[in-house]
Amino acid sequence: MEKKDIFAQIHDMETHMGDLHQELGALKYVVKELLEENQRLRMENQRLRQLLHQEHQDQQPESPVAAEGASAPAADALNPEGEEQENVVGEGYDNLARLYHEGFHICNVYYGHLRTEGDCLFCLSFLNK
Ligand SMILES: [Zn+2]
């Protein structure tokens, strides 16, 4: 093989590698977008399920509660509105913490985006509030 051919071959390989590198970068971007979209859809799905569940419960006839007698009102007394509100807030916090640990931003700067560079100070300060 002549030296000239070798250099031509190396040059070809270099070009090829450059193309591959670019392609890899583009694919990485697509995967990131898909993961973010997937997370958004999962959250939306969860929210819709909750709404559906709530609506379903709202539509339930009152009779089963009445049939159970005094137990249901007693449970209500144990769980006054204020406490219920607190539970909802706690649940929201848990969801956000889970989202963060699954690798997504929960800060208002990059919310819903994939954390590609480790911990985010904005998110952490939000979690520590
Ligand atoms: Zn963040």
Describe the structure.
- The model is unreliable at 66-79 (pLDDT under 50).
- This protein has two domains: 1-59; 91-128, no CATH class.
- It has helices spanning 3-59, 63-67, 71-78, 81-101, 121-127.
- The protein is mainly α.
- It is built from five helices and no strands.
- Bound molecules: zinc ion.
- Zinc ion is lined by residues 105, 107, 109-110, 120, 122-123.
Short structural summary:
InterPro entries: YabA. 76% of the residues lie in helices and 0% in strands. The protein is an all-alpha fold and 129 residues long.
For the secondary structure, the number of strands is 0
Output the helix-strand order.
HHHHH
Structural class by helix and strand composition: mainly alpha
Largest sheet: none
As for the number of domains, it is: 2
Helix content: over 70%
Task: Give the ligands present.
Answer: zinc ion
Query: How would you sum up the global shape?
Result: elongated
If you compute it from the alpha carbons, what radius of gyration comes out, rounded to the nearest whole angstrom? 27 Å
Ends apart, CA distance between termini: 69 Å
Contiguous low-pLDDT stretches (5 residues minimum) are 66-79
The chain-level mean pLDDT equals 81
What's the helix count?
5
Estimate what percentage of residues fall within beta strands. under 5%
Any descriptors?
single chain, 129 residues, mainly alpha, 2 domains, 5 helices, binds zinc ion, DNA replication inhibitor, YabA, metal-binding, cytoplasm, DNA replication
